[in-house]
Specification:
This protein is of the alpha+beta class and 194 residues long. Helix content is 30%, strand content 31%. It has a three-stranded antiparallel β-sheet with strand order 5-4-6. A three-stranded antiparallel β-sheet has the order 8-7-9, covered by helices on one side. It has a two-stranded antiparallel sheet with strand order 1-2. β1 and β2 form a beta hairpin. It starts with 8 loop residues before the first helix and ends with a strand.
C-alpha cells in the first residue's frame, strides 16, 4: 500500500452535494425569516409577540401625502330693497351684490346701490354665500308694482328662480297679478392657487 494514491470519486461528488445542500438551506432560512410578512415588510418581535414593519424607503419615511395647490374661498352676495316703496306707492329701489370676498362687503355694496337708486329706507332682504339667489317681484295688471317681493336661495339659479316665483305668487294672490324674476345671480366659491 505504499505509494499508491487512492482516488475516491464518489466521495468528491457527495461532498459537492453536501455543500450545495448547505448553501440552499442557508438561503431558505433567510427567506423563511421573512416568510410571515407581506412583501415590503420585515418581521419584528419574537415568537411570543410577532409582527411586521414596513421596510424603510430610500427617503427615510413613508410616502408623502398630496400637497394642496390652493384653497376654496367663500363668495358672498346680498339684495337690499327700499321697504318704504309700497307705502309711498312707487317702484322700490333695489341694490344687489355678488361674488364679494366678505359678507360685510356684500351688504355694503347692496345697500349703497339701493340708496343710489332712490331708496329712502333700504334694508337687506337676503344675504347668501356659495349659492345662488333669485328675486321675484309681483306686478299688477296695470303694470305697476304692488305686494311683496320674494328672494330665495338655492344651489342653482333655476331652483332659486322657481321657488321665488312660487312663493311670490302664493304670497301675493290678493294683488291679482303674476310675478316676475327681476334678478338672479350666483356667488359660488372660487379656487385660489397658492
Amino acid at each position: 500500500m505504499s505509494g499508491h494514491a487512492v482516488n475516491f470519486p464518489i466521495l468528491r461528488i457527495d461532498a459537492m452535494r453536501v455543500l450545495l445542500a448547505l448553501a440552499l438551506s442557508l438561503t431558505s432560512l433567510s427567506s423563511f425569516a421573512e416568510g410571515r410578512c407581506p412583501p415590503g415588510q420585515y418581521p419584528i418581535g419574537d415568537d411570543r409577540a410577532p409582527g411586521c414593519a414596513p421596510i424603510p424607503t430610500a427617503g427615510g419615511g413613508e410616502a408623502s401625502s398630496p400637497v394642496p395647490t390652493g384653497k376654496w374661498e367663500k363668495r358672498w352676495g346680498a339684495i337690499a330693497e327700499d321697504v318704504s316703496a309700497n307705502a309711498r306707492k312707487v317702484a322700490g329701489a333695489t341694490g344687489v351684490s355678488e361674488s364679494r370676498v366678505s359678507k360685510q362687503d356684500a351688504i355694503a355694496v347692496a345697500m349703497e346701490q339701493c340708496k343710489k337708486g332712490g331708496g329712502e329706507k333700504c334694508e337687506v332682504r337676503i344675504v347668501y354665500n356659495n349659492q345662488c339667489v333669485a328675486l321675484a317681484d309681483p306686478a299688477n295688471k296695470e303694470g305697476g308694482v304692488s305686494g311683496e317681493s320674494v328672494a330665495f336661495r338655492a344651489q342653482n339659479v333655476e331652483l332659486a328662480s322657481s321657488k321665488a316665483l312660487e312663493k311670490c305668487v302664493v304670497g301675493n294672490r290678493a294683488a291679482g297679478g303674476g310675478c316676475d324674476i327681476v334678478y338672479a345671480a350666483c356667488s359660488m366659491s372660487e379656487f385660489k392657487s397658492f
